[in-house]
Design brief:
This protein is mainly α and about 450 residues long. It folds into three domains: about 1-160; about 180-310; about 330-453, no CATH class. The protein is built from 15 helices and two strands. Strands 1-2 form a two-stranded antiparallel sheet. It is flat and about 80 Å long.
C-alpha cells in the first residue's frame, strides 16, 4: 500500500470521525449523522476526481501521454476512490437494512410509517448522484478500473430511489398487494445491466479488443472480474424479481395485468440481452445461464400479457396462468433444443471455437429445466381445484379444453425432444406429462359430467 493510499484513507476516516463528533455534540445519534457523513465524502470524492482529471489532462497536453502522474494527482485519485468507496459501502449497508424492513413489513403485514429512522431517506439520493458523477469523471480519463464502481453506484442509486416508495400495500381483506415500485425497480435494474453491457462492448470494439485477447490480457483482468461480479449479482436480482412477478401477478392502476406483464417481459428481455452481450464480450458460463433463464422468463411473461384482464381474483386466475405458462415453457423447450441441434451441426470436428458453440450444453440444460418447470405447472394445474385454500372448480368447457390442449402440446414437445436428442430423460418426462394429463381430466370429469345430468 502506497503512501498516498494511507493518506487518503486517513483523510476519509478523519472526515467520518469529525461528522460523528459533530452529530454527538448536537445530540443526534450516529444513524442520523450517516447522511451528512456520506454527503461530505461524496463531495470530497467529486472534488478530488475533478482535480485528478484536470491534472491528467494538463499532463497529457504537455507530454502527449496520460502515463505520467504527479504526486498530487496520485493523492487526489486515491482520496477520490477511498471517499467514493466509503459512500458506496455505507449506502449498501443502509439499503440492506431497508430491504430487511420491507421483508418484515411483508411478513407481519404492517407497512412501516417511516423509513428515515436509520439514515434512509431522499437525502441519500444526492450522495449517490454525486458519487456517480465522481466515478464518471475518473472513468472519462480512460481509467477503466473504476467501471465496476460506477456500475455499483448506478445500481444503488436506482434501488435507493425505488425503495423510497412503499413496496406493498395492505388490502381491506387483510392481505397485501405489491405496488408499482417493485416493477419500477425491475425495469431500472434490467436497463442498467443492458446499458453497462452495451457500453462495455462498444468501448472494447473501439479499442480493437476481441474475445481472444480479452481473455489473455492481464491488465484487464481485475476490472473485468469486478464488473462481471457486479453484473452477475444484478442478473440474479432481476431473475428473482421476475420470478416473484410471475408467481404473484400485479395489476396496475392503468392497464391492469396486461401492462404489468408487458413490463416484466420487456425487462426480462432487456436483461437477457445484457447477459448475452457480456457473454459475447468475454465468455462466461454464468452469464450464459442467466441470459437463457431470463429469455425463458421473458417468454412466460409475454404470454401472460395476452390473457384477458378478468378474472381479477388470483385464485381464479392461477389456473389460466399455469395453462399459459405451460405453453410458453414448452415453446422454450423446443427453441433451446432446436438451437442446440443447429449449433451442434455447425461444429467443425467437435471443437468449441465460437461463443454460440460453447452455448450448446447450456441450451440443452435449460431445455431440460424448462421441461421440468412446465411439468410442475401441469401438476399444479391438475391439483388446483382440490387444494383446501382454493374455492373454485375450474371445470368449464373452455378451461378443460385449454388445459387438455396445453398438456397435449407439452407431451408432443417432450416426444420430439426425446427423438431428436435421443435421451431417456425426455421419455420419462413424457410419461409424467401423460400422468398429469390424466390427472387433470380426472379432477374435472365428475363436475363436468354433472352438467349433462
Amino acid at each position: 500500500m502506497s503512501v498516498q493510499a494511507y493518506l487518503g484513507l486517513s483523510v476519509a476516516v478523519t472526515i467520518a470521525v469529525a461528522g460523528a463528533a459533530v452529530a454527538g455534540r448536537r445530540g443526534q445519534s450516529l444513524s442520523e449523522a450517516v447522511p451528512y457523513i456520506g454527503f461530505a465524502c461524496a463531495l470530497l470524492s467529486l472534488g478530488c476526481s475533478g482535480w485528478t482529471a484536470w491534472v491528467a489532462r494538463g499532463v497529457a497536453a504537455e507530454s502527449g501521454t496520460r502515463s505520467t502522474h504527479t504526486r498530487g494527482q496520485q493523492f487526489g485519485y486515491v482520496l477520490a476512490v477511498v471517499a467514493g468507496t466509503a459512500v458506496l459501502v455505507v449506502s449498501a449497508a443502509v439499503l440492506s437494512i431497508r430491504v430487511a424492513h420491507v421483508a418484515l413489513e411483508l411478513a407481519y403485514i404492517s407497512p412501516a410509517s417511516s423509513v428515515s429512522g436509520f439514515g434512509y431517506g431522499p437525502h441519500g439520493l444526492l450522495s449517490l448522484v454525486v458519487t456517480l458523477a465522481s466515478g464518471a469523471v475518473l472513468v472519462s480519463t480512460r481509467d477503466s478500473r473504476l467501471a465496476a464502481g460506477v456500475y455499483a453506484a448506478a445500481v444503488l442509486l436506482a434501488a435507493w430511489a425505488c425503495l423510497l416508495f412503499p413496496m406493498f400495500r395492505v388490502l381491506t381483506t387483510g392481505g397485501v398487494s405489491q405496488t408499482g415500485a417493485l416493477l419500477a425497480m425491475l425495469v431500472c435494474l434490467a436497463t442498467i445491466l443492458a446499458a453497462a453491457a452495451t457500453i462495455s462492448r462498444v468501448v472494447d470494439r473501439r479499442r480493437g479488443m476481441t474475445l481472444a485477447n480479452l481473455n489473455t490480457r492481464s491488465d484487464s483482468v481485475p476490472s473485468r472480474i469486478a464488473l462481471r461480479v457486479c453484473g452477475g449479482v444484478t442478473a440474479v436480482a432481476v431473475i428473482l424479481l421476475v420470478g416473484y412477478q410471475l408467481a404473484v401477478p400485479m395489476a396496475l392502476a392503468r392497464g391492469g395485468f396486461r401492462v404489468a406483464a408487458l413490463g416484466v417481459a420487456g425487462s426480462s428481455a432487456v436483461a437477457a440481452l445484457g447477459c448475452f452481450l457480456f457473454t459475447a464480450q468475454f465468455w462466461s458460463a454464468r452469464f450464459t445461464d442467466a441470459g437463457m433463464a431470463l429469455s425463458s422468463l421473458a417468454l412466460c411473461a409475454g404470454s401472460l400479457s395476452l390473457l384477458p384482464g378478468r378474472p381479477e381474483a388470483l385464485t381464479e386466475r392461477y389456473p389460466i396462468i399455469f395453462n399459459t405458462m405451460m405453453v410458453a415453457l414448452a415453446l422454450a423447450v423446443a427453441a433451446w433444443t432446436w438451437l442446440a441441434i443447429s449449433w451442434g451441426q455447425q461444429l467443425p470436428e467437435g471443437s468449441l471455437s465460437t461463443t454460440a458453440e460453447r452455448m450448446i450444453p447450456h441450451a440443452k440444460r435449460f431445455a431440460f429445466v424448462n421441461a421440468v418447470l412446465a411439468l410442475t405447472l401441469g401438476g399444479l394445474m391438475a391439483l388446483w381445484p382440490r387444494m383446501r385454500s382454493v374455492a373454485i372448480t375450474d371445470d368449464s368447457i373452455g378451461r378443460v379444453a385449454a388445459g387438455f390442449g396445453a398438456n397435449l402440446f407439452l407431451l408432443l414437445v417432450m416426444l420430439w425432444c426425446a427423438r431428436r436428442l435421443k435421451r431417456l430423460t425426455y421419455h420419462i418426462l413424457a410419461m409424467f406429462v401423460l400422468v398429469s394429463t390424466v390427472g387433470f381430466m380426472i379432477m374435472r370429469i365428475h363436475p363436468f359430467t354433472l352438467r349433462f345430468g
